[in-house]
Give the backbone structure.
Amino acid sequence: MAEILIQNITKTYAGGKQPAVNDVNLTIRDGEFMVLLGPSGCGKTTLLRMIAGLEYTDAGQISIGGRDVTDLPPRKRQIAMVFQSYAVFPHQTVFENIAFGLRMRKERDADVKRKVERSAALLQLEPYVERYPAQLSGGQRQRVAVARAIVMEPKVLLMDEPLSNLDALLRLHFRADLKKLVQDLKATTIYVTHDQVEALSLGDRIAVMRQGEVIQCSSPMAVYDRPATEFVGSFIGNPPMNFLRGRVERTNGHVHVTLHEHVLTAPPELAQHAGRDVLIGIRAENIEAEARETPDNLPARTEVVEPLGSHLLVTAAIGDQRLKLLTRTDFPAQPDGPLWLRPEPDKLRWFEVDTGREIGPTPQQRTEA
Ligand code: ATP
């Protein structure tokens, strides 16, 4: 079992004004693929390095498989790590690069050979084992770095942006390979990235970080569909979630939100916000568009039409507020022409204007989502 338990972990670098990691609590289940996602500087790498033992913690506790490792050096934590920079040894062959950790462990030559060959095969590196890193492409070098980690049969695999040096197409291929590999390996994995597509595609769960804190930790679909804050909704998804300002009103005991004189049905949780503005969150694919006037729909104006091959990405304006929606490619959208919108009612999300927090389900309902 290699469950990782992170309790109240905090770290401020010397000279840093704010903590790089601030009171983070996280449980990564045995065999789980956890992604740490967030913008540059939010503390992902610092948190990963503390789990690896490469960085001291100021406070808190880290345990792996039920053992407190907070003060243990990296080599005693039974982890393997893959970095963004491939960190392969240039003067050693691919074979020796992969074999490095096994040799350090003083494993028998026959075992080294068997294990290296198996890892090389898993990463499709067999034709290259006698080459030197300089004779490999970037993608192949990154495979060597991954092979070198998995050859150790680690219970815990830590990866810091391992795909970020690859071009877009290679990333796409390697991402699927990596997912398959990690599924087979059954190691508990923590994967750092600032790429939300990578996070959605790879993670069993995603911990979204901002300014040293974990804002939300849920399954990819839950993070996408039920962002806990405006920040999460804007960070995840391409295009990001739309946020429109509306006013909560209560008439005859019914709560609704008005958006440019248009009335949207709102859940009862919004009652306590009556008389105040809220942010209405809706994803581009959850808005239906009509080119003809439809009485119950929101009147809007098309501003920009971008063909994306499978869809049109339409930027529309409702009064002075802008939003993006996806339509079929045969939708007759004309720049500056009118259109009528219908956001799917059960896809509407509501957020506080000041804090950006979601108004609605309790944290427990959200976890179950
Ligand atoms: P990126 O995606 O850019 O790698 P990150 O989310 O991994 O960012 P960290 O590298 O963990 O973020 O950095 C978190 C904060 O700590 C940043 O404000 C950064 O400037 C600061 N920081 C990181 N390493 C050090 C260091 N060795 N000394 C001082 N400050 C540091």
Q: What stands out?
A: DSSP finds nine helices and 21 strands in the chain. The longest helix spans residues 168-185. The chain has a mean pLDDT of 91.
